[in-house]
Amino acid sequence: MTSTPHDEASPGTGEAAVRGVAPAADPKQPVAYVLAEYSTPEALVKAARQVYQQGYTKFDAHSPFPIHGIDDAMGIKFTRLPWFTFVAGGLGIITATLLIYYTNKEWYPYLISGKPLFSIPSAAPVMFELMVLFAAITTLLGMLALNRLPLFTHPLFQSTRFQRVTNDKFFLSIDARDPKYKSEKTIQLLTGLGAEYVETCHKEASAPLPWAFRTAVFLGLLLAMVPVSMVAWKRSTYSREPRIRVIFDMVSQPKKKTQTTSTLWQDGRAMRPWVEGTIAKGELKADDAFYRGLKPGGLNAVAATTVSMTNLVANQDGAAAAATPGAPATPPDPLDKLPWIENFPLEVTPELMKRGQERYNIYCATCHGLGGVGNGLVTIRAIELAEGTWVPPVTFHSEGLRKQPIGRMFHSISNGVRKMPGYGDQIPERDRWAILLYVRALQKSKYAPLSDVPPEKVNQLTDVAP
Amino acid sequence: MAAISPTMLDVVDIDNTIETPGRRSELVTRNSSYAEITDSVCYAAESPHPPLAWYVAFAISTSLTMMLGLMVTYLLFTGIGVWGNNSPVFWAWDIVNFVFWVGIGHAGTLISAILFLFRQNWRTSINRAAEAMTIFAVVCAGMFPTIHVGRIWVIYYLIPYGPNQHAIWPQFRSPLLWDVFAVSTYATVSLLFWYMGMIPDLATFRDRATTRWKYNLYGLLSLGWTGSARHWHRYERAYLLLAALATPLVLSVHTVVSFDFATSQIPGWHTTIFPPYFVAGAIFGGFGMVVTLLVPARALFGLEHLITLRHMENMNKVILATGTIVGYAYAMEFFIAWYGGNPYEQFAFTNRMFGPYAWAYWTMIACNVISPQVFWFKKCRTSPLVMWIVSIFVNIGMWFERFVIVVISLSRDYLPSSWGYYSPTWVDILTLIGSFGLFTTLFLLFCRFLPIVAMAEVKGVVHQHNHAVGHHEHDAAH
What we know:
- Chain B: It holds the Pfam family NrfD.
- The complex is a heterodimer of chains A (466) and B (478).
- Chain A is of the alpha+beta class and 466 residues long.
- Helices cover 41% and strands 6% of the residues of chain A.
- Chain A is built from 14 helices and six strands.
- Chain B is mostly helical and 478 residues long.
- Chain B has one domain: Formate dehydrogenase/DMSO reductase domain (Formate dehydrogenase/DMSO reductase fold).
- Chain B is 68% helix and 0% strand.
- Chain B contains 16 helices and no strands.
- In chain B, helix 4 (127-148) packs antiparallel against helix 5 (175-207).
- The longest helix of chain B has 34 residues, at 229-262.
- The radius of gyration of chain B is 24 Å and the shape is globular.
- Chains A and B meet through helix 1, strand 2, helix 2, helix 3 and helix 4 of A and helix 1, helix 5, helix 6, helix 7 and helix 15 of B.
């Protein structure tokens, strides 16, 4: 393609002079536009007003910059564009609101410091930004759509003189499809309106895009589909091969998996044997007797009841009601069937007993009373208030509780029983056992024969019958 | 229509800064005709060889950009540990640079949107370059939070995207997420605004193209613009709407950025003055950058008659005004710290003045509050050399303002046991320098390949101006 500098094109020769890059206008083609050139915006406005008043509808003025007052002269109606912007802005606000509401309140509620999951003040910035974003994009696209742009070719572009429309000249074009268009008469009209120059623009001989260009675009689009399809394929199918990783994140790290070999140790095992004096991760509370008061395998029995240990507590309300005289018989307590341990799972020492007494007085005596008969200060006060919701604690000296397996009592302290809440979170296991030891001592004290008392202490007893 | 080279013109500035009562001074000097405006703007893109200074600047800035690429690659392959960020200063130069660059962008949108709504016709000569600067500044700004998350390849976690396999969603109550929306909207809208404004000028480039390549490229970009009056009607309306949308947007962006700080509890950050103070500072810094860029650019491409001394003087007045507002904000922060009676706040501000970072604080005061005061004198306002030097001081000062806010507050908050002193590493320093390289490279490319001045708009206001001043017989005819 030879390049012809624009300033070499001779203006005013009347031919549709060929710019180096535009196809030549074919005079055999029918006339598409009549084009008139003016030097000042004022002359253009004047001519446009005349043409409009003559009743032409398909005509246009072209200028390097917007001329104010020409809208009125040409009868251009106010554009609908602001409504597009307005609606898009509203849609932006709605989109943001729904987006925040659903992601934060419905799909992934994540409570932070008790703040509301959805509140207008914290959503306002995003709502505002999306309103502006939607409105701005719509304004630009709406302007282009209403103007029927983009346009890759136009008959007027064949005119060499028309190149100055973006520089310093003013043009008036009348479409040949205008109902009032009459070849000679229209040209005469424009000449009479002070045009410096009038020419006709012909319909373009269709100039398709170059073959190579079309092929390249087609191939390019086809190639662009390849990676996308590959990703889509990989994501929707299963494979025995490891996944392709472009970036190695923490998901894939150099580590040994179970049942594999390693050269790091002499025995070649990746899995290491148990080291004495350690507890494997996750096996800290494996000791059923100590942590749950159950005989070995007790957890299986719990699992067989299909009710979890904590859910069993609820059933005890019924069991308690059954204990009150006159109440109707209730189903047997499922806890009774569990394999509770009968003996303490840790060494019983005087220190443990001391500790148990201290913990008992701290945690239990407020309700159960120092002697375990259920006359603690809280109980006395509650009965005085007579609110009706208080269930008095049972005495530890009843036949049932004296014979109850120690594991079952441990369960009661840990998870609660009737109105008593579980103390498992507050009292460590060892202390719970210590408390139980003391409770057992209290129980024993009520029914101990005189022969159990050491002879040197008998004198200290005050209420023994002589 | 031969292209005019600047050497053919006398390069002495024509002084249009003199106020004559009852008469508007000229917007562009030298009685520019429409063709003359086109020729002088297109010269920068059409001349076969740009000035030597352009080549030198381009060589330097591309080298710096490559250095930036190396620094970012090193960071991504090694981790954020290559920066100086560490307990207690977890936000350091990355956030300082981010806020700095976002602020730079504001002047562009302010000139193009707010001054447009205020019918300030003098904006037409400088808005294109300022908008371009906005885009490039936002590019630099967006880079910093992106790379500072460390795992840049999962940056898409920040946006609520459709096929969410993790079933987790961004936390819209976090100011940092507001930032994602604010900055990305700002970047998009600025780009649309910039591009839309350029469509008629790209059509000018198309119509003056001398090779098929240029014709096709500019033809594609100008979307078949014919200058139709019906098109201009909608175009002007769209431009007005975009300006009306961009005006609150520009104020909102830095407001949201300031919320990142203000919604926290760090002494020195938890302040209600932050939004207006940040916005004023951003305009101040942005105008500083516009002056820094335009003083050499107008001389290099012979645009003194379009970007006149009066334009520069007006911008210097804005710098003086906003610089003083920023000074007021500094004073008010101190006053509130004292008046509020919060001992932590009081300490934070005493520490700024006299603590280990006092050097940064006083640099900021000298650059931001004291240096623009020379613009009270007209001689300084209209001297390209003085304004250029002051504008560079303003840029330095605004960078230090962000440093003062981010680093000093974090380095000493409530617990003296967790105090620390932050120092940047060489990677920090080279990354900052490299971001200037990226910014300059983009701006130099813009000067060479796109219209630096909004030709169509300048022609429009020149026409209006001549209309209003000279053509009295025309007025009488109406």
